[in-house]
Specification:
The structure is a single chain. The chain has 381 residues and is mainly beta. It has two domains: 121 residues, Immunoglobulins (Immunoglobulin-like); 226 residues, Glucose Permease (Domain IIA). Helix content is 5%, strand content 39%. It has two helices and 28 strands. The strands form six sheets. Strands 12, 13, 16, 20, 21, 22, 23, 25, 26, 27 and 28 form an eleven-stranded mixed sheet that branches.
Amino acid sequence: MALARLLALVLLVVAMPALAADPHPPQLAVSFLAEPAPIVQDGSTRLVYEMQIVNYIKSAYVLDAVEAKTGETAATFRGPALEGMIRRFGLQGEPAGATNRTIEPGRGAIVFLMLDLGKAQAPPTIAHSLSVLDDKGEAHEMPLAPLAVSSERPIVVGAPLRGQWIAGDSVSNAPDAAHRRAVLILNGRPYISQRFAIDWVQVQTIGGVTTTWKGPEDKNESYFCYDQPIYSVADGKVVAMSDGAPENVPHSQTFAVPIDFNNAAGNHLVVEIAPRRYALYAHMRPGTVAAKVGDTVRAGQILGHVGNSGSSAEPHLHMHIDEEPSFLAGNGLPYEFASGEESGPVEANVSSPTAVSFGPIGAQHPFTDDYPAANALVTFR
């Protein structure tokens, strides 16, 4: 009997959770929207992912710093850099500032993270720690359980277009990165299907200004990319499509039809190119969608032409790869292009509903199995 009581006591001690070193640990629930997967962008391995923080009590907390460690990479984000990485629930579009770091009672926020690993391979986990101030100004450290990193390599695909194109709003961690921050809820779950989406446009220098059009600004035909052919990036099967949606008037800040979950992609195709890998081509010109559901397509096959339908301010090709056959739902997955030439990042406001502006564009260099830097100039042969 004594032995049985001793064994029961040992089992009780083993089963009990360790006591918190902090007698008043912050009542913040932390989770991640998706398991990060590595991507090679402009020659560097990067991890792109999002941390969700929810405050469960009636006192506010201030997020003072976020630390991430993985392999030989350690990064600490605080101050203005951290403020630009945070979007508080219900306050989309607010300018970055110190108030972004305040997690109010019963509220929450998403922290958008990007780690640059250089030439290193992605390790299996990321360790995180949060530095938090409570409503009395007392500091707390919150170590988190290790976050697993996917070991799966990005899928490598061919070119969706030919010639020179700007990789508009390709993934970055800028506060105004629209694709990166397009968090949408479906069936009770938050998704960022457009995490690695790109809005492809063409530019020319007119009167010393880099622009996407020449002629009447309100005519789709004035835009250099309009009606350019779109090519399948891989072999696959068409699983969704739509055609016949009217086109928008460029930069009018209105849409030809009210936009909802079902028509935001406008005239489009979704092609399953591997198990749970769906390539989406959106905003095509009406009447040009060249395949139907059930068709098999080949890499390099013309799928349609660039247009301005759906949720679009001017003609462009929106393309991304997702784990679901949806424009707005599912987890956006990393992918890389097999070959081409690319510049480094370019300053641009490509998600503006009005005229797009561009900063200086640097020289291009050849690439293999790479995803372009933010707004880079890319040449596909």
